[in-house]
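yo

u said u wanted the structure for the complex thing, so here. seqs first:
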Amino acid sequence: MPLADKTHLRIPGPTPIPPRVQWAMNQPMIGHRSGECSRLVVENSRRLQPVFGTDQPVLIVTGSGTSALEAAVVNAVAPGEEAAVVVTGAFGDRFAKIVTRYGITLRRLDIPWSEACQPEVLAEFLQQHPQVKAVFLTYCETSTGVLNPIRELARTVHQHSDALVIVDGVSCLGAVDCRMDEWGVDIMVTGSQKALMLPPGLAFIAVSDRAWEVIERNPRSRFYLDLIAYRDNLTKQTTPYTPAVSLLFGLKEVLNLIQEEGFSAIVARHRLMMEMSRAGIRALGLELLAPDAFASPTVTAVKGGGQLDVEAFRKELRQIGVVVAGGQQHLKGKIFRIGHMGYCDPLDVLTVFNAIELALFRLGVPVELGSAVKACEEVWANVSRTHHGSAQ
Amino acid sequence: MPLADKTHLRIPGPTPIPPRVQWAMNQPMIGHRSGECSRLVVENSRRLQPVFGTDQPVLIVTGSGTSALEAAVVNAVAPGEEAAVVVTGAFGDRFAKIVTRYGITLRRLDIPWSEACQPEVLAEFLQQHPQVKAVFLTYCETSTGVLNPIRELARTVHQHSDALVIVDGVSCLGAVDCRMDEWGVDIMVTGSQKALMLPPGLAFIAVSDRAWEVIERNPRSRFYLDLIAYRDNLTKQTTPYTPAVSLLFGLKEVLNLIQEEGFSAIVARHRLMMEMSRAGIRALGLELLAPDAFASPTVTAVKGGGQLDVEAFRKELRQIGVVVAGGQQHLKGKIFRIGHMGYCDPLDVLTVFNAIELALFRLGVPVELGSAVKACEEVWANVSRTHHGSAQ
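structre next:
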């Protein structure tokens, strides 16, 4: 058994909780209709705006990330309407499942599970489906480590239709640049347990003026996930139903951490961790699932096969003290995924590669110990040198 | 300003978190598909069964209590069907709102907001509405402190119809006797933040075999709150979507606390706290909202009026360090409510009355200091004497 509580959780969510956030969640419980809770709700909502890149209020829903995906669907699309879902992996597929479940005509654009959707592909698809009222996109596809070019895709949607642009930002918001208003994203949703460094249990949703008009006209039945109730209650400084108060305590501290590090530094840190991870994997002679152009700063997927049995490898890594994720759906047993987001820094990436080298060695996969770590360190060293140089 | 963090939160939920539960929630985050999380989900579900009085698995949903009320509605009643909702207060009213929102024909039985529904009243109502497919009941009506006689009401429903019996147990499960299977309750729901001593964010739902048949036939669209997905995933030792993991850590410790104290002792403690609270209020010459026969062991509502301005009184109490709730909807400004459930013991009830006496004195309401506390202590003393006697 590894040393208790010493596990390095490097899956693409849930992610480790920073000590200050953990401590913040230990405050004594408060009433959800108290002034203190109102201040928490209002301030957290306001301070989440730069993470989304929006001037719209950020709504706080108590639920898993999937509750936010569903909220986007049931609020924005009426029964019988058409919606396009761009499926680049398991979470695009989840959007498609929700859309189908709710009696919406699904126009599904399947992209191979290792690639991003390219604007010209979406443009052609939208020309074939001029009736779609909403286009569902995934910012970071957690199952593949692919980052879709949301800015360009949103522009493409607006060029070809009046459809709403709805984006699942669950596994990257808080780690990547997001300019929802500027890019013309109409609904952006995310969850608490990924780059936002909280336990699972909260979902966050921002909505454009254009989308609110659609939502207000939408006759579809909804109650717990009725976004109008969240918006109207937020103007009264509260939530419609008892929120997950301890996570609101934690969120306040998360937003302090983000403010202290600075959002551009956070984005740069995640980019560096991505580059280190990719260099390390390449140095080991392993194959990355996503090409560089589509790589996500929050999660890196690596192909198994040949001498690398990914499930045996993940088990060996766990013994050493590092937990990485496997593949989902048809990628199960075929890839492993390293999460490098939230409470994770370049040293943590080195730790992951320390463990990866050892695990490969133990499993008899040919590996030169230190080689991946060297490659990672070189990436980091060069970034440091650049920074040092630019400071002179 | 009162001493920081020394507030006694005595509202009917959220309720204070026991230190051991707080500590348990500080465990390092784990993956939601890990063996450790599977064990948490399965064990927590199993150990919740005695709280519900059921052999059915208890489903764990990440959401507010309202998400569980909605889950009951959307899973059990198809569009166009008829449902009866017994409204004894604000939470019965919430059931009615959800039912209406989902295109179900509402048969609403309004009971004055201070009384329980009597079986003969329900029987007559059901005879007038023979088509109802489900009857929605509230076990403890949080807004009035009334406990509805669920055993008798369930029996009445079964005598007069084949309708499902669906019960909101949010503000009492874990504090009162509940024998869901024996009483013939088909769906029982509760939340984490009341007698179960956790922060808000989890909801718990148990379903009878009879109700599962209805749920499986129900064509209504649902996704996040589709109970079939929770049931099927529980048999695979997991949840369909990322659960609020830190609350699952806490729940395990809550169930340890319940096991150590013993469920019958917990029920007796809540009953004692109710009797003490009622004796204290009477000693002050104030008027209880609910008669003794309908009183809930978890929350006591008290009428204001005359010399007692309840909002000024609640403010004064807060200054002293005790937080009680006000009234909801048409009872706003007319009552205050003392929560005495979960991590609350008879000494805490005495503390509440210490503060109540002082607050009344400060507001110039005639009060004999010590009189309410004396009455509370007498109740407790008599119970202690009885116990002492019976042990000989």
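Chain B touches chain A through 51 residues (CB under 8 Å). Residues 263-283 of chain B form the longest helix (21 residues).
cya
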